[in-house]
Amino acid sequence: MATIFQKPHALTDAPLHYCPGCTHGIVHRLVAQAIDELGVEGRTVGVASVGCSVMCYDYFACDMVQAPHGRAQAVATGLKRAKPDNVIFTYQGDGDLAAIGTAETVHAATRGENLTVIFINNAIYGMTGGQMAPTSLPGQITQTTPYGRDTDTAGYPVKVCELLSTLDGVAFAQRVTVDCVKNVNIARKAIKKAFQNQLDGKGYSIVEVLSTCPTNWGLTPVESLEWLRENMIPYYPLGVYKDIDAGVKKGGASQ
Amino acid sequence: MKVLMKGNEALGEAAIRAGCRHFFGYPITPQTELAAYMSKRMPKIGGTYLQAESEIAAVNMVLGASAAGVRAMTSSSSPGISLKSEGISYMAGSDLPALIINVQRGGPGLGGIQPSQADYWQATKATGHGDFQVLVFAPSTVQEMVDLVSDAFDTADRWRMPAMILADGMLGQMMEPVELPEEGEHASTEKPWAANGHSNKREHNIINSLYLTPDKLEELVVERYKRYEQVKATEQRAEEYLCDDADVIIVAYGASSRVARSAVNKAREKGGKVGLLRPITLWPFPTGALQKAAGHAKAFLTVEMSMGQMVDDVKLAIDCRVPVHFFGRTGGIIPTPGEVLAEVEKLL
After folding, report:
1. Mean pLDDT per 10-residue run, chain B (348 residues)?
2. Where in chain B is CATH 3.40.50.970?
3. Does residue A85 contact residue A172 with C-beta atoms inside 8 Å?
4. Which of chain B's residues have a Cβ under 8 Å away from the Cβ of A79?
């Protein structure tokens, strides 16, 4: 019988610990698939960041390094500068990349480090139990914004792709989501491009994936996808924010 | 052939000759000449000089480069080392070798920019959170700075732990003639644990410090401490100067040991039986040399550019068998030989 679908080789057999309905699993698969399709598992090193996805070092079959909170892109910079022929990616959540690691993110980007950054934006701190994230929406109720995120006191969400697309060092920035088959396919292509760019020496490439956190959002998996579509996508429009190949720069939210 | 070099620059050249091709830094006085030297040399030899956005980023770049299996280093001065403590703890918890240089200045806080030894506790006891130690080397001359750089890299590789060179603003800024080693005279260590791509030939390597099961974490920490016991047994370094017949032994390291040596010479001219015991490793602390000295000395005097951070280690090393006195200046002030001599004479 012909095999028409299988687990990517770049994923190990370790069972994922993620909650039902969480989209980490889909994104892990897309990353592993890109590594498989490009045939680079043997020279890929992933950087796991602090948060729900920290244990992805057990899930990806390539060599892995676990970074201190927020420092994934500094660690990745060290890995890449030490072995420029290796393929280095980071896998980071919103607290890691856009709060504690903002400086590391902005400066890896502005240096144009030849890295692939996978950014999971689920608008909440998952691992610590649902506190406000830098990307929590105005009015969003979390454990530490029990009356809803009040922009007068807690400020506004960080729009990472919009921010990074202003930096000359960035080669590619795209925001995607994985709420349906069509969007999973768009995400798959974006992630593969972010890896291909590194192989081509084009420089810093980031894919922001709008993701769900049913457990900490207090919603079912299906409700979470609806909440994402109704609330997150309008605030964080999907699309290519920068692509040096296509001449796209800043805010061009076209698919 | 000897060349005249500034301490900070000598550290950089010594690192290059020890096979280090990856330097990640951030400007801070009084170590900046080291970074500047690396920015000049590294591009010429195919190495990496990278000025990071912060000391935190710099030490984490070292973590990444070390994880990839290459010799990597960073340097800073006291306030910057506080920022690096996070990365140092993660490297210790991930069993990664690296070299961190601290050209100390006065503290706490922003403190001052003059020479100090007030980071002794931080270096030897609390370089970051958790149960761990780093190797700490304390040079007292520019030549010794050069020699200890390759020693520190080799020892860090041997034991898979971070090493620190604890210098100070005086050693970093002063010029002395030095003999540099030939390039390539360094031990090359196999690093089968490195995360440098498995080439489809082995299981994936994971560089990690997270262990959510307490039993597993305890097991790993205990294992590391067994290694530390071996380090203590084999890596203690100290210099004894006129100690054999000494009634009073000064214990001093780094810049203050140079002052102490002058005081010993002046005391000897007057007939006083005074010696100097100079720790070269601060961790592991040279307890063996101190215990031997405690067999005949009547008193010890620690001379430090701090409020006496090393005194307890001396007392513990000799089980308080002999009184341990202290003289020090702090805030960036270097004691004078005359001041030290006056303290010694009180004990003779």
Report:
1. 97 97 97 97 97 98 98 98 98 98 97 98 97 98 98 97 98 98 75 97 98 98 98 98 98 98 98 98 98 96 98 98 98 98 97
2. 3-182+224-232
3. no
4. 64-65, 67-68, 195
Pairing of strands B22-25, A248-254: unpaired
Residue numbers of B between 47 and 86 with CB closer than 8 Å to A: 48, 50, 52-54, 56-58, 60-70, 72, 86
Residues of chain B with CATH 3.40.50.920: 239-347
ipTM of the complex: 0.96
Task: Specify the CATH number for B239-347; select among 3.40.50.920, 3.30.70.660, 3.40.50.720, 3.90.320.10.
Answer: 3.40.50.920
Task: Give the closest-approach CA distance of A113 to chain B in angstroms.
Answer: 11
Separation of alpha carbons B66 and A81, rounded Å: 11
Cα–Cα distance, B63 to B82 (Å, whole number) = 16
Cα torsion for A141, A98, A19, B213, to the nearest 10°?
A: -120
In this structure, whether the domain defined by B3-182+224-232 belongs to CATH 2.60.40.10 is answered with no
pLDDT digits (tens, 9 = 90+) for A152-195: 999 999 999 999 999 999 999 999 999 999 999 999 999 999 99
Q: Which of B22, B94, B200 is nearest residue A42 as measured by Cβ atoms?
A: B200
Instruction: Check CB contact under 8 Å for B204 and A64.
Output: yes
Q: B206 CB near a chain A CB, below 8 Å? A: yes
Regarding pTM above 0.95, the answer is yes
